[in-house]
Write a structure and sequence with these properties.
Elements (H helix, E strand, L loop, with lengths): L1 E6 L20 E6 L2 E5 L5 H10 L4 E6 L22 E7 L6 H8 L15 E7 L4 E4 L2 E7 L7 E7 L2 E6 L24 H16 L4 E5 L16 H11 L3 E5 L7 H15 L4 E4 L5 E3 L1
């Protein structure tokens, strides 16, 4: 597998000299297998991916949407590939009990928000909804999706191809004490135990990341910045998980919009000192490619 980073920033895109090295586009990660292309999330980084795939004469890709917060879907209407009638796209996401995956994307592509409705795009777009814990095959790879502790219906992915495993564990409060995920089965019933769901959602993150060669991690907060209502993790949370489940490489991701290049490099250096020799640490950077 080849992992390419097209967007690495959280919440909203930024553009300033102090973020030029790591990049300011919102989440989009490409996973190229020997049999196809998988893209995770459609933040503003998907524009660069679309241009690149056109240059490579690609005509199909599978898009995995972790959730529908705007920083993860706002680039979708601006992906050039979607305006070509020779392109096919399959969009995958977790099942939402109150709205369809198609209706979510239709919502941001209608007047007065966008001039081109979803149904007028040239590409053939199919939507597939998955349940928590589903495993399916695309691009010759085995993909598992699991719910995570983040406001709304949000999830992470594990992609296995050959003897390599890649984990995308973004937008989750890994060790938080507040249950932020919604529409969980039985959570609103009398006698339901939110703490049990918190343990289950954390175990989902463990299962996704177990012995992964590369794990992309939500490291939005430093400890002193942490806000329990946002649904994001601290760098220290994932340093602990990396040691617990055995990441080969931990990749800091969903960088805070105000986080400068110099600050990111200081954070990576500190993580490397604390992680020891068994865990490699890097920060996601636009244009970075990791070969597994």
């Amino acid at each position: 597998m080849k992992i390419r980073f097209w967007g690495v920033r959280g919440s909203f895109p930024v553009s300033s000299p102090n973020v030029s090295r790591y990049g300011g586009n919102t989440p989009c990660v490409e996973v190229e297998t020997g049999q196809g292309v998988i893209v995770i999330d459609a933040g503003t980084g998907i524009r660069g991916f679309g241009k690149s795939l056109l240059e490579r004469s690609g005509k199909h890709f599978d898009l995995l949407l972790s959730h529908a917060h705007w920083d993860h879907i706002q680039g979708f209407p601006h992906c050039e590939l979607l305006y070509r009638d020779d392109v096919t796209v399959t969009v995958h996401g977790l099942h939402h009990p109150r709205r369809t995956l198609a209706s979510i994307l239709e919502g941001q592509q209608q007047e007065p928000f966008h001039p081109v409705p979803l149904h007028e795009l040239g590409a053939s777009i199919d939507f597939v909804e998955h349940e928590d814990g589903d495993t399916f095959e695309i691009a010759g790879a085995r993909v598992t999706c699991r719910r995570l502790n983040h406001p709304g219906v949000a999830g992470g992915f594990r992609i296995e191809y050959g003897d390599r495993a890649f984990a995308y564990i973004c937008d989750t409060d890994l060790n938080g004490e507040h249950l932020l995920a919604t529409d969980l089965p039985g959570v609103d019933e009398p006698g339901a135990d939110p703490a049990a769901w918190l343990r289950r959602l954390r175990q989902s993150a463990c299962d996704l990341g177990h012995s992964a060669d590369l794990a992309v991690c939500d490291t939005f907060f430093l400890p002193e910045e942490y806000d329990p209502d946002w649904g994001h993790s601290r760098v220290d949370d994932f340093l602990g998980l990396a040691a617990e489940v055995g990441f080969g490489t931990m990749c800091l991701f969903h960088h805070r919009p105000s986080r400068s290049d110099d600050e990111l490099e200081d954070i990576v250096a500190d993580c490397r000192r604390r992680a020891g020799r068994d865990i490699q640490v890097l920060a996601a950077q636009e244009g970075l490619q990791v070969d597994l």
